[in-house]
Amino acid sequence: MSWRPQYRSSKFRNVYGKVASREHCFDGIPITKNVHDNHFCAVNARFLAIVTESAGGGSFLVIPLEQTGRIEPNYPKVCGHQGNVLDIKWNPFIENIIASCSEDTSVRIWEIPEGGLKRNMTEAVLELYGHSRRVGLVEWHPTTNNILFSAGYDYKVLIWNLDIGEPVKMIDCHTDVILCMSFNTDGSLLATTCKDKKLRVVEPRSGRVLQEASCKNHRVNRVVFLGSTKRLLTTGVSRWNTRQIALWDQEDLSMPLIEEEIDGLSGLLFPFYDADTHMLYLAGKGDGSQPAARGLRHLGVNVCPSSAGVMPKHGLDVSACEVFRFYKLITLKGLIEPISMIVPRRSETYQEDIYPMTPGTEPALTPDEWLSGVNRDPILMSLKEGYKKTSKIVFKAPVREKKSVVVNGIDLLENVPPRTENELLRMFFRQQDEIRRLKDELSQKDIRIRQLQLELKNLRNSPKNN
User: What range(s) does the DUF1899 domain occupy (predicted)?
Assistant: First the structure.
């Protein structure tokens, strides 16, 4: 009798993407055109936040999800930053608290009022200063309340305890700009990608690098932990400049387990992993069409074009068998389209087999417990009964004075690292623009002086004066 391989059919093999109708999209939004490689969009079960174009500082919109349609040009903004906003993230446990970071070197915590903004918000409930360069990334800890990570262009990752409003730890193992951060399920490990072409797995409380890979053939850009599988997935570029994904063992980064080429487009690939369905989604920044993608072993792979925000599981419509939802940013049209990933089912009742217990809105640890070395898996919830429950946790900002920031015996605001190549280039071009502007002003003044001299000469030579 011949041996035949046994294939297990996946219940998610026919998942398809459904774009919302125009009246359920968000239109008329001046989405930022900043070239920084971030999502510029954050979503939770109540609000949609989008970084916008603005003059004289940075701003972002916060829109209640039910307020779809055209957004008025004078819609209130969160506009307290003095520089461009580079990243925004909602607190996973308190739905009206959002963190933002900016080119002005600050991280700020904002409390959005019930029902959304009625006027421009300029005062944050908490301002965090510790980076000496612009701050490009913020991430909330997945199981601990009020622990926030920020990564700056000073090559440092700061861990903030928002109960006291201070940085309590510093990860200082990177030699260039940090491109991406990702936590494992219980938040005991942090994976980072860096502009120095290295992938690192770090123990965040000690800052110790557990594993490090020098990616020469696969130039990494983004990384994501694949749930509790002890696997990492990275997106990047191969030596032939094709977009590529790679699968790694988190305990051995000597070489990738699998490398898979996607296509030859140039847009950055953002990976999103759904641990409940074991589905991987790739969002290609700037992609105008939907490229093809092949499956990666046990993972299903779907490709969604453009930058996107992702709805948490407890915000999905389970009655429509929705298992994932993107919010796709179309910058040129000022449009945001919700895209729902649907499992086709005939029954309209709750489908328990496609909605296992999932991380909920209650933290598993306090900041002091996590900082003392305790690890705990997230508290799970059922989407059948508990997904409409609101969190009872309230954010209380600490009262503190602005002072020097000392972590690991180093004053972060005094020890400024050397400027990066991009910063030096920006300074050079800014100075060149200023020199050109001054030359134009001098030239205009010289022309005006000649005109006045000519008028005076003509006036002296006129017959009337003779």
Answer: 5-69
Burial call 415-426: b when 16+ CB within 10 Å, e when fewer:
eeeeebeeeeee
Distance CA 303, CA 109 (A): 33
What are the φ and ψ backbone dihedral angles of 422, each rounded to 5 degrees?
-65, -40
Q: How many CB atoms lie within 10 A of CB 192?
A: 25
Does this model's pTM top 0.85? My answer is no
Distances (CA, A) of 132 to 15, 126, 135, 151: 45, 18, 9, 11
Residue with tokens 């002003």: 441
Tokens of 292: 């093809």
Integer Cα distance of 455 and 466 in angstroms: 16
DSSP label at 257? Answer: S
Task: Tokens for 67, please give them.
Answer: 């307020």
Taking alpha carbons only, the member of 268, 273, 201, 191 closest to residue 236 is 268
Q: Tens digits of per-residue pLDDT, 235-273?
A: 988 888 888 999 999 999 988 898 888 877 777 889 999
pLDDT tens profile 290-335: 433 333 434 444 544 456 889 999 999 888 889 999 999 988 888 9
